[in-house]
Each structure stands twice: as C-alpha cells, then as structure tokens.
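Request:
You are asked to prepare a plain-text protein record giving the amino acid sequence and the backbone structure tokens, at your earliest convenience.
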Amino acid sequence: MAGGRGDHAWQSLAAALWEALRGDAPLPGRALHGLLRGLAAEPPEAVWHPTGFLVLTVWRTEEGALRLHLWPEGPRERGTPCWPVHDHVWNLRSQVLCGEVESRAYEVVDDPRGEAVLYAVGYGDGRRSCMRRSARRVRVRAQAPQRVGAGERYAVAAGEFHASTVAVGDLAATLAATVDTPRPWPWVVGDGDGPAEVPVERPLAEPSRVVPILRRLTER
C-alpha cells in the first residue's frame, strides 16, 4: 500500500476510511471495526503530541494521512512549554469515535503591540522538532467553542488557528484524515517573551498504555 507503515492487513481498511473521511462521506462500519481490531493486535508507534494526546499514524500516502488521536483518562504527557494554539499545513477532518472533544478556533492577527508571538515549527529526524521565534507579534481572540461528541465531525482548514481539548479524566478518540497543502510550515502561538528556540521531543507511549484503549474502542 502506497505510503503505508509496514505490511499490516488493516492498511487497505485504513485507505478506505481515509477516502471516506476526506470526502466527508459516512465511514464504512466494517472497515472501522476491522481497523480498530487490527490496531489492537498490531499497534503502530504511538507518540505524545506536545499538547497532550497520543498520535498513531496508521496510513500515509503522498496526498495525506490517516491518524488516530487518543486522549487517555489517566496522566497525559505535554511539552514544556505547552502552547496549544496552532495551525496546520494540511486540511483536517476528524470524526469523534468516543468521548467529547472541544474544538476552538482562534482569530490571530498581526499586531506590533500584540501579546503573543508566532513560532515556526521545523521538523527534524524521528520525533524531534523545533519551534523558532519569528518577528510576527500577534493578538489572539478565541472564538466560540465547538463541542463534538461520538459520531460527529469537525474540520480545520490549513492555516486556521485552533486548539482541541478533552476534559481531564475523560477518554476520547478521533479518527482524522489529513490532506496536504503547499504551505511551508505550521505556526504555534507562543508567549510574547518566549525564547528564540524551543526544541521539542515527542516521547513514545508504551504499548501497554495504548492497547487497552484500542480494545475498548472495538467494544463500542
């Protein structure tokens, strides 16, 4: 399978789900259940995102990727500093599989007297990246939150600033389709007095932390 991660039986299912989700079509239920069962049996690498959720990239093509995002009920690892407001270089459409996700958009406007600064994210080898302070000071205004429950969807366009959160102690999972765009790098809204560079290391999660969540998803 083009761009896939290893020779897993569930990759054809992941490709079908990506096609459906990117086109905003209903997810084929048998494919979703088969994918979740396959992931529970052969879990791919699970990486902590700096804002506190797990990312499992289950399929990739030249156009984009299918990712499973998990917010465990227990402790979540976050980056230091943890700056949640960011944009993407790809278009995103997510379907909530369980729990409730709050997706909030932000208006970010260039302003020399703004209270925040934009950081450009550059990716290195493996799980490393670096946020580099730009000369762009900005003012930020939060929009009304969108609360999305199981079976519902939300979309975030490339270049749109947002943050997704799940209440502490709650379990949530989303299946996300990304579609790449020509944008060169993503931005993160950082503190106005932040350092010139912030190195980021995305730690791996132990399979013992991930597999029980995947098994619970297959039972829903």
Notes: Residues 1-5 have pLDDT under 50 and may be disordered. The two ends are 28 Å apart (CA to CA). The first helix runs from residue 11 to 22.
